[in-house]
Write a structure and sequence with these properties.
Layout lengths: L3 E4 L5 E6 L6 E3 L6 E3 L6 E3 L6 E3 L6 E3 L6 E3 L6 E4 L7 E5 L2 E5 L7 E5 L3 E4 L2 E4 L11 E2 L5 E2 L6 E3 L6 E3 L6 E3 L6 E3 L6 E3 L8 E3 L4 E3 L7 E3 L3 E3 L6 E3 L6 E3 L6 E3 L6 E3 L11 E6 L4 E7 L8 E4 L3 E3 L6 E4 L6 E3 L6 E3 L6 E3 L8 E3 L5 E2 L11 E4 L2 E4 L5 E3 L6 E3 L6 E3 L6 E3 L6 E3 L6 E3 L7 E6 L2 E6 L6 E5 L3 E4 L2 E4 L11 E2 L4 E2 L6 E3 L6 E3 L6 E3 L6 E3 L6 E4 L4 E6 L12 E4 L8 E6 L2 E6 L5 E5 L12 E4 L5 E3 L3 H8 L14 H14 L2
Parallel strand pairs: 2-4, 3-5, 4-6, 5-7, 6-8, 7-9, 8-12, 9-13, 16-18, 17-19, 18-20, 19-21, 20-24, 21-25, 22-26, 25-27, 26-28, 27-29, 28-32, 29-33, 30-34, 33-35, 34-36, 35-37, 37-42, 38-43, 42-44, 43-45, 44-46, 45-47, 46-50, 47-51, 54-56, 55-57, 56-58, 57-59, 58-60, 59-61, 60-64, 61-65
Antiparallel strand pairs: 1-2, 10-11, 11-12, 13-14, 14-15, 22-23, 30-31, 31-32, 38-39, 40-41, 48-49, 49-50, 51-52, 52-53, 62-63, 63-64, 65-66
Helix pairs in contact: 1-2
């Protein structure tokens, strides 16, 4: 090694320190040093000056020390070392350069190039390929307890613990000791509910202080649960949930859509429920109440939603900001005072029925809730301004809007949504969801664009609604099933007993009530199964099943839209032979009767006016006989000269059988 010195502007000597081909340990001075590792796996330490550290070849470790240092890793897998936890630094990327700003303290601002790894307070982070955005997770040391891809709770031992949730929505309880907690993927929660003192925790910096949070480092968490003491909790740029365990807390959500959850709170004796009041655009105060006592008061900053307790809660917004309130169990009052407010029922144990126009609320957590009319708050009568939007539960909900523009979200479950007046947004979520409209279908214009359906009322006050996640539209004169509709001609309007298949291969069976059955695309098997039905196969190769006593069914073929190469058939079931079928023309249609029966017939519509609407064959299960469409007319002509056997005559007379035998022989295969 060859150290050299020169004078810097302060009169101190600047050291230029150069290593060699071996593994060197090179330490700088109090001056502004230049340290070059050259070859080998070197350890370079800058000291107190404004230093330049260059690792050269090999896998090097570089620590700048005090002042604003420049660290160049060179070739190899190189590591920049910093003393404090990663949350104490602001790390940015620009055009191949990583900048690490200590923000406070003596390490100041370091500029890094050629660095694959950064080491903070003993934890190594792989920054290979990082170009900004979310910081990488640390490389966990030996002894780390890992979760699975499922949902679990990981609990520390009381000492220094290393916990990593991997996948799933995990809860991590580090306990006492300076813990390293990594949530992994999923929606993860760091819990300090068992702390013996208040905690200060920030998801933005990933650092914890005081109580069980002292010296904790957190990565990849979306949610925080505080202690039963006085906590200071801070979110990050994502959507965070803060779970209150009691105490007087100061909670800051930050960017994103953030919630504070009081559902686990136990009310003190003599209290009625919780009271929430938004006093400024960014602040909400919350506390328990009765006639005059407020035992504790939380301050919620930059929080968009509040989930109340299991008691009778009151949410009061003296401004006109946009709030979200989930009252939970109990008879809750929402005093939104205007604004674009949302009532939420996500955690209800049963479906809810809520009407924003009438104020009616029943079922699950909605039971007893009030958001219209007036109420008395500590001797003063207040008028409620109502809410604008609704978000349902995981069950089957009925959500109804008002005369203004509403947003109705069904979430999970088979929901029924009705926007009523105004230009509404309806999101069914998971399940088979229905949007309800007051008038007949012909009074609306329906269109599709990029996954959203628009329903515009041509008359009346219902406005123009935007629909996502909605499978069916219920009108005054029937139902549209839009499960697979992506524009173009609308599917058929269904009555209450009607059935419609999908684009796949369906087996569709009716009831004795009689209905219309639509196979749509795919190779379908369709049976009316009693009653007078209308059977429409749609595209694909379809089979219409007919049995004795099935009623008088109409069969409607797809016509020219049916793809080339498809084959459609009418199949008569067990107990019906080919010589028990009577063929005749009725207007433009072909009628086939099962002789002897009063109600066992099919009418093949438009047989004589459109050849594309003909089935390819008539078949029988008994004897496996088949009649092609081309041979049908020969039977119609032959039978036209005879009288069809009457009800109760289940076989042809000997004479009629003899007369028709030649045509049977040349038509049926």
């Amino acid at each position: 090694m060859s150290p050299a010195t020169d004078s810097d502007s302060g009169g101190e000597k600047m050291a230029v320190i150069t290593g060699d081909a071996t593994d060197n340990v090179l330490n700088g001075t109090a001056a502004a040093d230049q340290i070059y590792g050259l070859n080998g796996n070197d350890t370079l330490t800058g000291g107190n000056g404004i230093d330049l550290l260059d690792g050269g070849d090999g896998d090097d470790s570089l620590y700048g020390g005090n002042q604003n240092d420049t660290l160049n890793g060179g070739n190899g897998i190189d590591t920049a070392v910093f003393e404090k936890p990663i949350g104490r630094y602001r790390i940015t990327y620009n055009n191949g350069v990583i900048t690490v700003d200590a923000q406070s303290g003596y390490e100041d601002v370091d500029t890094l190039t050629g660095m694959e790894k950064l080491k903070f307070n003993g934890l190594v982070y792989d920054f290979t390929g990082w170009t900004g955005g979310p910081l990488p997770e640390p490389t966990m040391p030996a002894g780390t307890v890992y979760g699975t891809e499922g949902h679990e709770t990981l609990t520390g031992t009381g000492g220094v613990d290393y916990l990593h949730g991997l996948g799933g929505d995990d809860v991590m309880i580090g306990g006492a000791g300076g813990d390293i907690l990594v949530g992994g993927s999923g929606n993860d929660t760091a819990s300090y509910a068992g702390s013996s003192a208040g905690v200060t925790v920030s998801l933005e910096t990933g650092l914890g202080f005081y109580g069980d949070a002292a010296n904790d480092v957190l990565h990849g968490f979306e949610n925080l649960q505080g202690s039963s003491f006085n906590d200071t909790l801070t979110g990050n740029g994502g959507d965070n949930i803060f779970i209150s365990s009691g105490g007087v807390d100061d909670i800051t959500g930050g960017a994103g859509v953030d919630w504070v959850d009081y559902s686990d709170i136990v009310k003190p004796a003599g209290m009625t429920g919780m009271f929430f009041q938004r006093g400024t655009p960014t602040n909400i105060a919350s506390y328990f109440y009765n006639a005059s006592i407020n035992p504790f008061k939380d301050t919620l900053r930059q929080v968009e939603g509040v989930r109340g307790s299991a008691y009778d809660d009151v949410y009061m917004n003296i401004l006109t900001s946009d709030d979200m309130f989930e009252g939970g169990a109990g008879a809750d009052i929402f005093d939104g005072r205007g604004g674009n407010d949302t009532l939420v029922y996500t955690h209800s144990a049963a479906g809810v029925n809520v009407n924003l126009a009438t104020g009616a609320a029943s079922g699950g957590d909605a039971t007893g809730d009030q958001f219209t009319g007036s109420y008395v708050w500590r001797g003063t009568t207040r008028n409620l301004a109502g809410a604008t939007n609704l978000s349902g539960s995981e069950h089957a909900d009925t959500l109804t809007g008002s005369s203004v523009a509403n947003v109705l979200r069904g979430a999970d479950g088979d929901d029924t949504l009705r926007g009523d007046g105004g230009n509404d947004t309806l999101d069914g979520g998971a399940g088979v969801d229905i949007a309800v409209y007051a008038l007949s279908l012909n009074n609306y214009t329906i269109s599709y664009n990029s996954g959203a359906i628009t329903v515009a009322a041509n008359i009346g006050t219902e406005g123009t609604d935007t629909l996502t996640g909605i499978e069916k539209l219920l009108f005054a004169n029937g139902t549209l099933d839009l499960t697979e509709w992506t524009g173009g001609p609308l599917p058929p309007l269904l009555g209450p007993n009607d059935i419609m298949g999908s684009s796949g291969d369906n087996v569709l069976t009716g009831t004795a009530a009689g209905q219309s059955i639509y196979g749509m695309a795919g190779n379908d098997s369709i049976s009316g199964a009693g009653g007078n039905d209308v059977l429409t196969g749609g595209d694909g190769s379809d089979t219409y099943l007919v049995a004795r006593g099935d009623g008088v069914d109409d069969i409607v073929q797809a016509g020219i839209t049916d793809a080339a190469g498809t084959t459609d058939a009418v199949l008569f079931g067990s107990g019906v032979s080919y010589d028990q079928l009577w063929f005749r023309q009725v207007g433009n249609d072909l009628r086939i009767d099962v002789i002897g029966e009063s109600a066992s017939s099919v009418l093949l519509k438009s047989w004589y006016t459109d050849s594309t609407r003909r089935v390819d064959s008539i078949q029988t299960t008994d004897g496996s006989h088949s009649l092609s469409a081309a041979n049908v007319q020969a039977l119609v002509d032959a039978m036209a000269t005879y009288t069809q056997p009457g009800t109760g005559d289940f076989t042809l007379s000997p004479q009629l059988a003899s007369d028709l035998a030649p045509v049977f022989a040349t038509t049926w295969a």
